[in-house]
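Hypothesis: this fold can be encoded by more than one sequence.
Test: take the structure tokens below, design a sequence, compare later.
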């Protein structure tokens, strides 16, 4: 069965469909909700996480990004564990964490599995899958881990060079890049962001250096490729 999954996954990866194939397979195991993300390491600095795929409800995501994430015991547990784990194994020690888990259950995520994904090359990932009605979580932990790890390897391989490099940009650099793509000059960008024009020059110089670009046209092109121009380059 796993060999068939790998064949399907490899075939889907030829057209960039590896995440969709993985999500369908995970759902067949009983997990109808998932979030898959990636983080890049630049020297010793850990960058933000890019959410590559999520089937969480919009209301939950809005609440989560609005502040609930700071009380997520799953995130706290994942920072000290390098192996997949069941959410029920996470210590829930504070009232805020108990309230968080209760709200997650109300959102249809009463049971879940999370796992780190490490592929080398400076790019790592993480995945969480969840459902409301308890499946055989103990039975499925390694299946979820193996299936997601295989997908993650193919996904990283398929990323464009520009997307990988864009991980190394700071939040302010992405903001400057977005407005460059919108055709704004440096003075206008400084007014929009509330920083000095010399500050815009500084961030623009860093963008050119990190992405190995030489013109605003090239910056705009990369911004559109990575989604930065549309503002949908989502992080958590």
């Amino acid at each position: 069965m796993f060999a068939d999954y790998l064949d399907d996954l490899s075939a889907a990866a030829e057209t960039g469909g590896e995440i969709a194939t993985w999500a369908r397979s995970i759902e067949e195991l009983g997990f109808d909700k998932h979030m898959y993300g990636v983080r890049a390491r630049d020297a010793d600095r850990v960058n933000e996480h890019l959410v590559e795929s999520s089937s969480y409800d919009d209301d939950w995501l809005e609440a989560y990004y609005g502040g609930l994430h700071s009380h997520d015991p799953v995130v706290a547990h994942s920072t000290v564990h390098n192996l997949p784990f069941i959410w029920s194994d996470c210590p829930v020690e504070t009232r805020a964490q108990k309230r968080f888990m209760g709200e997650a259950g109300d959102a249809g995520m009463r049971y879940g599995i999370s796992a780190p994904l490490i592929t080398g090359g400076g790019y790592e990932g993480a995945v969480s899958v969840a459902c409301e009605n308890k499946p055989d979580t103990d039975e499925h932990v390694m299946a979820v881990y193996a299936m997601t790890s295989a997908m993650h390897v193919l996904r990283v391989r398929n990323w464009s060079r520009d997307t990988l490099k864009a991980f190394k940009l700071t939040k302010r650099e992405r903001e400057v890049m977005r407005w460059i793509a919108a055709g704004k000059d440096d003075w206008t960008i400084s007014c929009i962001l509330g920083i000095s024009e010399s500050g815009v020059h500084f961030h623009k110089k860093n963008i050119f250096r990190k992405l190995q670009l030489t013109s605003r046209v090239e910056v705009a092109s990369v911004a559109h490729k990575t989604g930065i121009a549309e503002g949908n380059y989502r992080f958590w």
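Confidence is low (pLDDT under 50) at residues 43-48. The longest helix spans residues 137-158.
Hypothesis status: open.
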